[in-house]
């Protein structure tokens, strides 16, 4: 799908390489390369996720930097990757489900909305939002049990009031003990609120990403329109056609715009869904059955958070989560678009 983002008064159009839909992909290459690329992304961002999780379950508020230094000082650098093996094992199938659901839904919904006569920019935002929603719901079927296990491992070794009384040797041991204590449903603790957190977050993110891209490209079109009025000499990054007043960005410029748009969308999603993510983390970390009593409900978890630090307690870990989501979104979208180009069946048609 070409993006033609320009201010109407400038009569300027931006042509970028066509979007690659589901039918254009070599599926085996897409999933194989995707597993490798996103495993690397997960490894890079994992310490930030762990710090965020520690902040969310702590009863006292500490900054992300102080929390990270405290972990390294008292538990060693390896503690920043506690539970990573378990998380990685779940990331691969979860990402595969996510990417498949995302591309299939986006392709089908995009075609359907355009056929209904909806303008292309609006159709693109709708398709992206619905695709993000369905992809998040599909991925949570795999990701929630992995999240429960990895987060238990993340908080192990912290203050007793913040962590589970069970001691886990590794991910398999944690899996076995959770099932023994709380049954299979223990692995899906927080599944409902995970859907409420990640599904709207993904819908907001993908829709925001679509809108942000158009805004950024529109700004670039206006900028180069003004430069053309002053001089016919353009830079190397973006060239303007001599005949049709069109701007044709190179691959580096396209990636830069995608990264900036992704960071903007990630920041907005983090802010909107932060309280739900904090509640979800608390529910997943606490033991289910303790001394014959069930674990706290969502309502009790919210009341405990407010008692500990007021409504701002629901935003504990916002800094690391904002940074994590922005960096993850920027890295993910540039990696994802690069992955799609590597996996396209007909490379020549992309030029």
UniProtKB/TrEMBL annotation:
Alphabetized Pfam families for the sequence: Mito_carr
Q: What InterPro entries does the entry give?
A: MCP_dom_sf (IPR023395), MCP_transmembrane (IPR018108)
Is Membrane found in the keyword set?
yes
The record describes its membrane topology as: Multi-pass membrane protein
Q: Which UniProt keywords apply?
A: Membrane, Transmembrane, Transmembrane helix, Transport
- Which Gene Ontology terms of cellular component type are present? membrane
Protein's UniProt keywords contain Chaperone: no
SUPFAM superfamilies reported for this sequence: Mitochondrial carrier (SSF103506)
* Solcar repeat extents: 26-108, 123-215, 253-342
Segments spanning the bilayer are 30-51
Q: Which Gene3D superfamilies match?
A: Mitochondrial carrier domain
Q: Where in the cell is it found?
A: Membrane
Q: Which family does it belong to?
A: Belongs to the mitochondrial carrier (TC 2.A.29) family.
> This protein is called what?
Solute carrier family 25 member 44-like
Source organism (scientific name): Gossypium stocksii
